[in-house]
# Entry
Amino acid sequence: EVQLVESGGGLIQPGGSLRLSCEASGLTVSDNYMSWVRQAPGKGLEWVSVIYRDGNTYYADSVKGRFTISRDNSKNTLYLQMISLRAEDTAVYYCASAYSGTRISAYWGQGTLVTVSS
Amino acid sequence: DIVMTQSPDSLAVSLGERATLNCKSSQSILYTSNNKNYLAWYQQKPGQPPKLLIYWASTRDSGVPDRFSGSGSGTDFTLTISSLQDEDGAVYYCQQYFSTPWTFGQGTKVEIK
# Structure
């Protein structure tokens, strides 16, 4: 059974930094397209970033230059390093994994809440 | 970037009736080399992560009831719930995974009348 468990969210002041983690079981992070999707309170889903199997990374314009997606193969864990946080980054952040060999985000974690506020 | 536009924003449907949700992409998401549309549909209920319903525009995910069906190609897509059940009240999102950024539509809220 595939499980994705996010952690690292919390209350952070504007301009601060935070690192989110997504620990995977039942799949191998390095073998799959792994992405981050966020949802601001009461709003829709916003795609944030993806790391391909070959290690290439892509970002939404709204986070480019501030967020960095990475993975630790030895820990089978996905990360999202966030710097220069803004109030508009406040959201639940979901980690998602695609079906093997595809870009279809089939498996989702329960999410971790990031609140950027002074 | 590919913009995904869903319509309507919300709809109220009676139990047992059909619900039709639309999704339009700003450019084709049909990959001609494999003839696949890179489109997925998700269902999200309050306090829960999205749940994959449909991928490749028309393939139902494992365990998804057959009252859910997806259709369309190129830029215009439809999710149909053939006979609405109580548990189908949710927000539905389409997403393209043809090219990055993998954009979502704004969502359609389905309410049970």
User: Anything to note?
Assistant: Chain A has a mean pLDDT of 97. The first strand of chain A starts at residue 3 and ends at 7.
